[in-house]
């Protein structure tokens, strides 16, 4: 198996189709693709004949908080082919995505939310739960927060700046104005 990386706009048609099929099985009714304003990048684990085994997207945007603007990246649309789940392939891809973000000098932190039962999966890949933190997605005029009724979400992060303890403190127990727009309401 090999890892491939593309700007989402540059995904070959066959790979984009496979990703859309995997996402439709995982999240029926979802629309494939991300807002181009978030500079989406796709990471894929591909089997020997080009079959997509794991796919995930990395999204990027500045996030103002605590008197500064952080260069944030988020994980989105992490999906593993149904018949291959439980083998650690998704976890290895998430850990690799984290390592690549950590090595990127243009990224201060990774920040995203997930359903509470998935938190341990992401923690095993090196992310940490931020207790009491809420991501506020959508837009300022039409927000969607991870603590809205009916959600059971947690916020996870990894800090890559020169002062990760300061940044962890700034992002813990607060409402973070992520506002990625109406396409990727929460990433």
TrEMBL record:
The keyword Translocase does not apply. It is an enzyme of class 2 (transferase). Residues 1-146 form the N-acetyltransferase domain. SUPFAM superfamilies: Acyl-CoA N-acyltransferases (Nat). InterPro entries: Acyl_CoA_acyltransferase, GNAT_dom. Its EC number is 2.3.1.-. It holds the Pfam family Acetyltransf_9. Transmembrane segments: none annotated. PROSITE patterns: GNAT. GO terms for molecular function: acyltransferase activity. Keywords: Acyltransferase, Transferase. This is GNAT family N-acetyltransferase. It comes from Streptomyces virginiae.
């Amino acid at each position: 198996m090999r890892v491939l990386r593309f700007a989402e706009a540059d995904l070959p048609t066959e790979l984009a189709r496979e990703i859309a099929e995997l996402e439709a099985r995982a999240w029926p009714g979802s629309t494939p693709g991300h807002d181009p304003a978030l500079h989406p990048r796709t990471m894929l684990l591909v089997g020997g004949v080009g079959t997509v085994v794991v796919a995930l997207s990395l999204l990027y945007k500045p996030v103002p908080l605590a008197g500064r603007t952080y260069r944030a990246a988020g994980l989105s649309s992490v999906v593993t082919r149904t018949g291959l789940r439980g083998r650690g392939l998704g976890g290895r891809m998430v850990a690799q995505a984290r390592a690549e973000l950590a090595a990127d000098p243009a990224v201060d932190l990774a920040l995203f939310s997930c359903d509470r039962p998935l938190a341990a999966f992401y923690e095993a890949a090196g992310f940490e739960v931020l207790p009491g933190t809420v991501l506020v997605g959508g837009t300022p005029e039409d927000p969607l927060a991870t603590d809205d009724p009916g959600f059971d979400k947690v916020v996870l992060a990894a800090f890559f700046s020169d002062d990760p303890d300061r940044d962890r403190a700034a992002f813990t127990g607060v409402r973070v104005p992520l506002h990625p727009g109406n396409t990727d309401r929460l990433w």
